[in-house]
Structure formats: structure tokens, C-alpha cells
């Protein structure tokens, strides 16, 4: 199997503010995507990140596992708040207030779609919310969408969610399915904005085919921005994972976006310009003494 994965933040926003996450694990033949909601909660991207990484690493995915991840999230958030306080972050008081006293606002919320490839051309899927799995045939026609409730209910504004609350980790139902696929089929996993776009264009095989032509981050960005510009794709954090060549049992990660690498790059740019701003007067003083022939 050939796997490609892409992620893009909202238009005009940075990867550090992106709440989507995905993970591909070749050893466990597992893939997961998650969309941390962008309002009404705390450290949503962290919650989404913990969900996708734990799913692709663990054999068991049940209520107790998710509750244990909620405890992991809580400790990670506490550590982040403590570190920000030591660094005298002026905005940490708000996060601390939400975390300890914010009630429902003091948790992370996320949709989730995870799949595992089994023997005999079968896939096991776990889905809650409107992050979706599409099975596509060799002619680029969509055979099935999961969760299947989307066919009747569509994409709502209040999806089912996983919550980083050990005592109340589910809003809605985790839909588990075992899906039989053909060796000529292909797979798409997409978070809500792109999933809704795919579903609305499910009979437009040229659009579906063009998704499978995306080979790198630049091409993914061009595809997303094209349809954002014509208002047919909602502006939201956007994630896509593509699986092709199903007749090959082993995973081949052809291209995988790494969110952490994007964030590190952004931080390097910020650090560079911060350093320049701090030393600008020094630079200006130096340049005044240079004869540059002007």
C-alpha cells in the first residue's frame, strides 16, 4: 500500500494554531486523523495529537483506553501551564483559569477516524464525529462513506466528539465497522471541511480523481486553495490521507506532512525576526559608519 498524508491550517493561520492531526504507523498498519474543535475548549490540537498517536500504537481501542489518554492529556496540559508560568507568559493566567475552573471549557474536544488494515482485504474502522473514511473504486467512484450516518444526516454543526474528560469522554457514539475492500479500491480519510467537499462532489469523478493526483504538500495546498477561493470548500484546518495500491500488503509512506516540522520551521522564522528587532538599533548604528558609496 502507498500512503500519502497532508495537512493545512486555516487560511492566514499558522501550523502552530492548527488543531488537526494525523498519524500513519507502518508497523501496526494503522492510520488515524482527528480534528480538534477550535472553540469552547483547551489545547485541542494536543488532544487530537494524543488520540491519533495512541490509536496507531495500541492494539486496543475502547472506552478505558480513551479515558487513560484523557489522563495523559491532563498531565501534559498541567506541564505546559507550569512551564509557561516559569517563562512569565502573560497569557497563561487565562489558560490556567480554564484548566482548573472552566468546567466544560477546560477540556479538549475532537472528532476521530482511525483504521487498521487486517488480513483478507478487511479494514477495521473507529469513527466518532464528521472526520470520514471513503472507499473509492478503480473508476474513482465513491463506494461507501463512514460513518454511514452521514448519508442521512449530512454534516452538522455539533458533531459527536471525544472529550479529554475521564468521567465523560464521549459525546455521541463511537462507530466501529469491519469493511471488506477490493484490491483495486482506494482509501481517503479526511477531516470535516474536506470530507463534506468530497461528499458533495461524490458524483464528480474528475474531482475525486484529482485528489489522488496530489503527490506533495505544494500540490495539496494548491488543490485546497483552489476550492477555498471559489467558496466550495469551507475554510478550516484540512487533513487528507490517501491509500492506494491495496494489493500490496506492506505500507510504503510515499509522502507524509509532519506538523511538528512545520511548527519548528515557523518558530525558527519568529526567532530570527525577534532577534533582528532586538538588535535593529545596533545594526542601524553599525551601518551609519559604513561607506556604501551611496
So how many helices? 8
Classify the fold: give the CATH topology of the largest domain.
Answer: Phosphatase 2c, domain 1
Oligomer: single chain
Helix/strand class: alpha+beta
- β-strand amount: 25-35%
Amino-to-carboxy terminus distance? 62 Å
Description:
The protein is of the alpha+beta class and 294 residues long. The protein has two domains: 2-257, Phosphatase 2c, domain 1 (4-Layer Sandwich), CATH 3.60.40; 260-294. It is 38% helix and 25% strand. The protein contains eight helices and 13 strands. The chain has helices at residues 44-57, 63-86, 92-101, 150-153, 192-200, 205-212, 217-229, 259-288, and strands at 2-8, 20-25, 30-36, 109-117, 122-128, 132-136, 142-146, 161-163, 170-171, 175-180, 186-190, 238-244, 252-256. The strands form two sheets. Strands 2, 3, 4, 5, 8, 9 and 10 form a seven-stranded antiparallel sheet that branches. Strands 7-6-11-12-1-13 form a six-stranded mixed sheet. Helix 1 (44-57) packs across helix 2 and helix 2 (63-86) runs antiparallel to helix 3. The longest helix has 30 residues, at 259-288. Residues 286-294 have low confidence and may be disordered.
Task: Give a short overview.
This protein is of the alpha+beta class. The protein folds into two domains: 2-257, Phosphatase 2c, domain 1 (4-Layer Sandwich); 260-294. The protein has helices at 44-57, 63-86, 92-101, 150-153, 192-200, 205-212, 217-229, 259-288, and strands at 2-8, 20-25, 30-36, 109-117, 122-128, 132-136, 142-146, 161-163, 170-171, 175-180, 186-190, 238-244, 252-256.
